[in-house]
């Protein structure tokens, strides 16, 4: 049951290649996911048959493009269980969505002396927008700590979130520690204190079923490319009441109601937040990726990745000289596994693995405060998705052992 | 291909420099100093250079953290430029960065780089070129901002 299904072996042609003369094992999914042929076909079909600008033409192609674009919005709405399509804003990606919230809602509501609460595990894209907002407003930016095994410390969260807190912004899943954070509980804590909860869904939406209404998030941002859609497209969810009361992010075509010489009024949601020609093909491609994930089943995605982690993590932890970050209990760990090998810099590890055809990330993972907190300059990171197999996990384990041997005994001893 | 390919990058001399880096210490009497980071990986080098009135590099030392390639490159760089004139050192930095980018250079220029010339093998590993050049960029920046101790 762990082996890839017939469709995943044929749907991702990019995976059927050799890299450095070895069959490719792609384990950099937390950075970006590979695209199934259905997504590539949707992009091609749009450009070859339906391309036109949306919402502003009466001709047939404009009508087709508009209806495809809005159908993609409805797919995204159902995927995250938003109450209505008007709550689904297309963005460039998670970074764009989070910046939108900080620059509009944050700008309107955060004042001197207020608090913004994030966690030490945040990706820079859910950190710097709040840090800079706090600096502009003379507000305080507070960080929730981690427990000893790398989970969010909820006792600390209860201490840090106070009646002075206006915004709580937390990753739904970590891009380093492999934990899923209890957004629902955090939303409840935030609401008790009169604050809103902003969820960074970049690492969660591709891997687990997301229900923004059940989580009770006020805003939730995700990236299309990490869930097998094209780059440059993402979704920002916001509760209608908040979006209605929030000023536009950018001004221009498509987002207006009436423009007079000295003043303007804004069109309705969600288009109020979509100034200028949007990434129409990207949205349609994301719609195709959502179809793919929905057909496959998000529960099945999560179960598949959990089986890989259950298999790999204990074996990795059993290797001498290997440090794994985040919880060591496979049940608490997602398919994002950051690790270091004693005495070998993660860049050297990544180069060695690349020679074995294995693609992993090495670096600070856009989480420099977390790296400092963990006393690491950088880490290596293997991250899995629905097309990865037990064989991929075995290839990684073998290559890690060979890498250790190579660097610990000098050159010339490798196979 | 496998790890055997790594031997072309991680030659013994490179591993030796990274295991036992030369001049890895801070100077108390540096005339030129700089901190340079590789923002893509978080590697950092603090480079101290002492240049005398005649324009000769009389002492050099570095501290910081980084991968095998950046550490060994820094070690080999300090060996190569110690005792050289400021101008020669800058010329060597240019030669090194040209070399790793695959540009042709007279053999005499490459010989002057000493052990550092062995890093021409980095050309086959484009993702690692920045690791090799960090120390030489630091040298260039430190020497060009003569007498300026700020960073």
Offer a quick outline of the entry:
The complex is a heterodimer of chains A (415) and B (151). Chain A is α/β, with parallel strands linked by helices and 415 residues long.
Write up what this structure looks like.
Chain A: It comes from Levilactobacillus spicheri DSM 15429. Chain A: GO terms for molecular function: cysteine desulfurase activity; pyridoxal phosphate binding. Chain A: This is Cysteine desulfurase. Chain A: Belongs to the class-V pyridoxal-phosphate-dependent aminotransferase family. Csd subfamily. The complex is a heterodimer of chains A (415) and B (151). Chain A has helices at 6-11, 37-50, 60-80, 94-109, 128-137, 154-160, 183-192, 212-215, 240-244, 280-296, 298-318, 346-355, 368-373, 390-408; strands spanning 18-19, 22-23, 25-26, 88-91, 115-119, 140-144, 165-171, 196-200, 219-223, 234-238, 256-259, 264-266, 322-324, 336-341, 358-359, 361-363, 379-383. Chain A is an alpha/beta fold and 415 residues long. Chain A folds into 2 domains: 6-31 and 298-409, Aspartate Aminotransferase, domain 1 (Alpha-Beta Complex); 40-295, 3-Layer(aba) Sandwich (Aspartate Aminotransferase, domain 2), CATH 3.40.640. The two termini of chain A are 33 Å apart. By secondary structure, chain B is an alpha+beta fold. Chain B has one domain: Sufe protein. Chain: A, CATH 3.90.1010. Chain B is 42% helix and 17% strand. In chain B, helix 3 runs parallel beside helix 6 (129-144) and helix 4 (86-100) packs antiparallel against helix 6 (129-144). The termini of chain B are far apart. Chains A and B meet through helix 12 and helix 14 of A and helix 1 of B.
Number of strands of chain B: 3
Do you know the CATH architecture of chain B?
Alpha-Beta Complex
Averaging pLDDT over every residue of chain B, what do you get?
88
| Strands side by side in the biggest sheet of chain A | 4-10-9-8-7-5-6
CATH architecture of the largest domain in chain A: 3-Layer(aba) Sandwich
Shape of chain A: globular
Q: Which class best fits the helix and strand makeup of chain B?
A: alpha+beta
Q: Low-confidence runs of chain B (pLDDT<50, min 5 residues)?
A: 147-151
Order of helices and strands of chain B: HHEEEHHHH
Number of strands of chain A: 17
Q: Please state how the strands of the largest beta sheet of chain B are arranged side by side.
A: 1-2-3
CATH fold-type name of the largest domain in chain A: Aspartate Aminotransferase, domain 2
Overall tally of structural domains of chain B: 1
Helix content estimate of chain A: 40-55%
Main sheet overview of chain B? 3 strands, antiparallel
Pfam family, one (chain B): NifU_N
Organism (chain B): Levilactobacillus spicheri
Domain NIF system FeS cluster assembly NifU N-terminal (chain B): 10-131
InterPro entries (chain B): NIF_FeS_clus_asmbl_NifU_N
């Amino acid at each position: 049951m762990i082996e890839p299904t017939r469709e995943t072996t044929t749907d991702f042609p990019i995976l059927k290649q050799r890299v450095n003369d070895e069959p490719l094992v792609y384990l950099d999914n937390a950075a970006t996911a590979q695209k199934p042929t259905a997504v590539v076909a949707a992009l091609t079909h749009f450009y070859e048959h339906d391309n036109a600008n949306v919402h502003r033409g009466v001709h047939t192609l404009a009508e087709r493009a508009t209806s495809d674009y809005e159908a993609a919005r409805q797919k995204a709405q159902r995927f995250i269980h938003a109450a209505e399509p008007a709550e689904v804003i297309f963005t460039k990606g998670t970074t764009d969505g989070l910046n939108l919230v900080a620059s509009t809602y944050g700008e309107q509501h955060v004042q001197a002396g207020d608090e913004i609460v994030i966690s030490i595990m945040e990706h820079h894209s859910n950190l710097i927008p709040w840090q800079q907002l706090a600096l502009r407003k003379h507000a305080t930016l507070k960080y929730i700590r981690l427990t000893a095994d790398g989970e969010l410390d909820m006792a600390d969260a209860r201490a840090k979130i106070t009646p002075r807190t206006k915004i709580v912004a937390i990753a739904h899943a970590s891009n380093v520690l492999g934990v899923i954070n209890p957004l629902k509980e955090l939303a409840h804590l935030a609401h008790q204190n009169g604050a809103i909860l902003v969820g960074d869904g970049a690492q969660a939406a591709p891997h687990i079923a997301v229900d923004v209404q059940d989580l009770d998030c006020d805003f939730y941002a995700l990236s299309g490319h990490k869930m097998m859609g094209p780059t440059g497209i993402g979704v920002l969810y916001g509760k209608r009441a908040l979006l209605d009361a929030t000023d536009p992010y950018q001004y221009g075509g498509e987002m207006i109601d009436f423009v007079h010489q000295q003043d303007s009024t804004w069109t309705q949601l969600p288009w109020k937040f979509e100034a200028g020609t949007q990434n129409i093909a990207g949205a349609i491609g994301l719609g195709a990726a959502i179809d793919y994930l929905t057909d496959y089943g998000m529960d099945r995605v999560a179960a598949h990745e959990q089986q890989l982690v259950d298999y790999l993590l204990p074996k990795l932890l059993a290797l001498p000289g290997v440090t794994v970050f985040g919880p060591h209990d496979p049940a608490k760990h997602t398919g994002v596994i950051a690790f270091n090998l004693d005495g070998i810099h993660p860049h050297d590890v990544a180069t060695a693995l690349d020679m074995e055809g294995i693609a992993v990330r090495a670096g600070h993972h856009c989480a420099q405060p977390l790296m400092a907190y963990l006393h690491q300059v950088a880490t290596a990171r293997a991250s899995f998705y629905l097309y990865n197999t037990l064989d991929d996990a075995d290839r990684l384990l073998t290559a890690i052992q060979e890498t250790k041997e190579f660097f610990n005994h000098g050159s010339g001893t490798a196979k | 291909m496998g790890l055997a390919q790594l031997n072309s990058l991680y030659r013994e001399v490179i591993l030796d420099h990274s295991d036992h880096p030369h001049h890895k210490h801070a100077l108390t009497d540096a005339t030129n100093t700089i901190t340079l980071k590789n923002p893509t990986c978080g590697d950092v080098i603090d480079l101290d250079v002492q240049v005398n009135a005649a324009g000769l590099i009389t002492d050099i030392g570095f501290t910081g953290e980084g991968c095998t390639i950046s550490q060994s490159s820094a070690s080999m760089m300090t060996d190569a430029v110690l005792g050289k004139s400021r101008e020669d050192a800058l010329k060597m930095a240019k030669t090194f960065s040209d070399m790793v980018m695959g540009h042709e250079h007279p053999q005499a220029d490459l010989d002057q780089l000493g052990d550092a010339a062995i890093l021409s093998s980095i050309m086959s590993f484009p993702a690692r070129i920045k690791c090799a050049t960090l120390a030489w960029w630091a040298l260039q920046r430190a020497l060009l901002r003569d007498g300026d101790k700020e960073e």
